[in-house]
Design goal:
The chain has 7 helices and 19 strands. The protein is α+β, with helices and mostly antiparallel strands and 311 residues long.
Length: 311
C-alpha cells in the first residue's frame, strides 16, 4: 500500500512575513491520517483552524491566502505557497501548522528552508492509503489576449509533471531560461526546484511598499532586479531560476486541492489566481477527475513510493 505521510516529531521556525514584515513563529506538528494540512492561528484569543482546501483560498494578489471557510473577512494565513510546495515535494499528507500571525515567514524566499524543516523532523509513514486526485480529461483556463494572454491546463498523466513558460519582456529575465519542465517522480524536487527564490522588480517593490506590502522583502529572501540586471551579488541559483520559482509556486497552489495530483500541468504566464481558477474548474466537473489509491505500490507512478533522502 502506498501510505500517507506525516512528521515523526514537531519542528519550529521563526522569520518575518514578506509583505507584513512582522516576526512570526511556525510550529509544524504531526497529524493523524486523513487530517490533511491544517493551519492554526494560535495568536488569536480563540485559536482558529484553517484547513488547506482549494475553496479556502480567499485572495491571490501577490500570494496565495487562505481563510476560515474561504471568507475574506475571516481569520487568514497569507503566502502559504512555498510551504505547500515543500509539503507536496516531500509527499506530506497530514500536518498541523501552528502560526503566531497571519503570514507564513518568507525565510530565504524559496521552499528549501521548509524542506529542511520537514526533513529535520523526520517523515513518518502512516497506516492509511495515500489518496490522489487523478485527472481524467483536459481542463484549461485562459485569460487575456495578445501580449496579455495567460493560460494553465491539466491533462491526464500517470504521475505529476509540470511545464511552465514565462515571458516578462525584461532583459535580465529574458537572458535566462524561459521554459522549464519537471517530473515529480524523478525524486529531484529538493535539488532542482526547491531552491528557486521569489523575485521582484525594484520599480514594483517601491510601489508595493507605498501600499504597505513587501515590507519584509530584502536581498536575503528574494531576487531583486532593476531595469537591466539582477542586483543580488551572488547571482542566480539556477540558470532558469525565474521560471523554476513560478513552477515552485504552481506546485504549492495545486497542492491546495487537498491531495496530490496525478496530472500533467502546463502553463504560460500563470499565477496564483489562474492556478486557483484551474483547480476550481477541475473539481467542479465530477467527470474530469476521480480519487485513487494504490494498494499495490508497483501500480503507483514511478518514484512516488520512495521517501526523499535526508539532507
Amino acid at each position: 500500500m502506498l501510505q500517507q505521510r506525516t512528521l515523526k516529531s514537531l519542528t519550529r521556525a521563526v522569520g518575518v512575513g514578506l509583505h507584513s514584515g512582522q516576526k512570526v513563529e511556525l510550529t509544524l506538528r504531526p497529524a493523524a491520517p486523513d487530517t490533511g494540512i491544517v493551519f492554526r492561528r494560535v495568536d488569536l484569543a480563540q485559536p482558529v483552524d484553517i484547513p488547506v482546501r482549494f475553496d479556502s483560498v480567499s485572495d491571490t494578489r501577490l500570494a496565495s491566502t487562505i481563510s476560515a471557510g474561504g471568507d475574506p473577512g475571516a481569520p487568514k494565513v497569507q503566502t502559504i505557497e512555498h510551504l505547500m510546495s515543500a509539503c507536496c515535494g516531500l509527499g506530506i499528507d497530514n500536518l498541523y501548522i501552528d502560526i503566531t500571525g497571519d503570514e507564513v515567514p518568507i525565510l530565504d524566499g524559496s521552499a528549501a528552508s521548509f524542506v529542511f524543516l520537514l526533513q529535520s523532523a523526520g517523515i513518518a509513514l502512516q497506516n492509511a492509503p495515500k489518496k490522489f486526485i487523478r485527472v481524467l480529461k483536459t481542463v484549461e483556463v485562459r485569460q487575456g489576449e495578445g501580449s496579455r494572454l495567460m493560460w494553465a491546463r491539466l491533462d491526464p498523466y500517470h504521475g505529476f509533471r509540470l511545464t511552465f513558460e514565462i515571458d516578462f519582456g525584461h532583459p535580465a529575465v529574458d537572458a535566462t531560461g524561459q521554459r522549464t519542465t519537471f517530473d515529480m517522480g524523478s525524486g529531484r524536487y529538493k535539488r532542482d526546484i526547491a531552491r528557486a527564490r521569489t523575485f521582484g522588480f525594484t520599480k514594483d517593490v517601491e510601489a508595493a511598499r507605498s501600499r504597505g506590502l513587501t515590507l519584509g522583502g530584502s536581498m536575503d529572501n528574494a531576487i531583486v532586479v532593476d531595469d537591466y540586471r539582477v542586483l543580488n551579488a551572488e547571482g542566480l541559483r539556477y540558470d532558469d531560476e525565474f521560471a523554476k520559482h513560478k513552477m515552485l509556486d504552481a506546485i504549492g497552489d495545486l497542492y491546495n486541492a487537498g491531495h496530490p495530483m496525478l496530472a500533467s500541468y502546463t502553463a504560460f504566464k500563470s499565477g496564483h489566481a489562474l492556478n486557483n481558477l484551474l483547480l476550481r474548474k477541475l473539481l467542479a466537473d465530477v467527470t474530469a477527475w476521480e480519487y485513487v489509491t494504490f494498494e499495490d505500490e508497483a501500480r503507483a507512478p514511478a518514484g512516488f513510493a520512495e521517501l526523499a533522502p535526508a539532507w
